[in-house]
Automatic annotation (TrEMBL):
Protein name, as recorded: YrhK domain-containing protein
Domain of life: Bacteria
Domain YrhK: 21-76
Keyword Membrane annotated: yes
Keywords for the protein's UniProt record, in alphabetical order: Membrane, Transmembrane, Transmembrane helix
InterPro entries associated with the record: YrhK_domain
UniProt organism field: Donghicola eburneus
Ranges that cross the membrane: 24-46, 52-73
Pfam families reported for this sequence: YrhK
Length: 94
């Protein structure tokens, strides 16, 4: 099955666990980005904390960059799991 196919995540109990772990990680990174941006925004009210606010925005941006990376790594792992299952069953690729 191709990457990002919904059936990849429910192919086996192992793939369901892998999918759930990556979804949890994705959600945690999402919350981290939101909190970093919120705190950074509040810090901009004080001139003396402007540098800290900028750094929080940079860290929040890195979190937003990590999100698609997490999804891609997850999908590659699910895809490979399917390939190994086919190999174990002796199926040939078409």
């Amino acid at each position: 099955m191709p990457l990002f196919h919904s059936q990849n995540r429910t192919r086996s109990p192992e793939s369901e666990r892998l999918y759930a772990r990556y979804e949890l990680l994705h959600t945690l990174v999402d919350f981290a980005a939101a909190i970093l941006f919120l705190v950074g925004s509040v810090l901009f009210f004080w001139k003396s904390l402007e540098t800290a606010a900028i750094w929080l925005f940079v860290l929040g941006s890195l979190c937003f960059c990590a999100k698609p990376t997490i999804r891609l790594v997850r999908e590659i792992q699910l895809y490979r799991m399917g390939k190994f299952e086919k190999l174990a069953l002796g199926e040939t690729e078409t």
